[in-house]
Amino acid sequence: MDTLPIWMAGLEDEDAAFIKRFVLASGSLKEMAAQYGVSYPTVRLRLDRLIQKIQLAETVEADPYVALVKRLAVDDKLDFDTAKLLLSEYRKTKEERS
Question: What letter does residue 85 receive in the DSSP assignment?
Fold first, then answer.
């Protein structure tokens, strides 16, 4: 394989390492929790966020600002309510300009 799929290219190294460990653990979240030394819900949350990142990468946004805000929310660098507010106001502004 010469090129990475788009959904993989957007992942951080730690995300790729998590995927590798997940596959090697045969998809067992219980095993992953033991390997990382954390609780099952913690691993489940990490997997859910990784799923969101992959889904976001596959639904390529035409607008880079929208994609950035969504990525920040998925990465937990911006809370969900703030992201919604920013996107709502941004879309209103764009509609007003049209």
Answer: H
Tell me the residue type at 70: K
Q: What's this model's pTM, rounded to 2 decimal places?
A: 0.65
Tokens of 77: 């660098």
Q: Which domains does the chain have, with CATH numbers?
A: 1-60 (1.10.10), 62-98 (no CATH)
- Residue with structure tokens 């219980």? 30
Residues 8-16: contacts with CB under 8 Å, at least 24 apart? 9/57, 10/53, 10/56, 10/57, 10/71, 11/50, 11/53, 11/54, 11/57, 15/50, 15/53
Q: In the numeric block, which tokens belong to residue 23? A: 């596959």
Q: What is the pLDDT of residues 53-62, one digit of tens each?
A: 888 776 665 6
Cα 5–64–6 angle (5° rounding)? 0
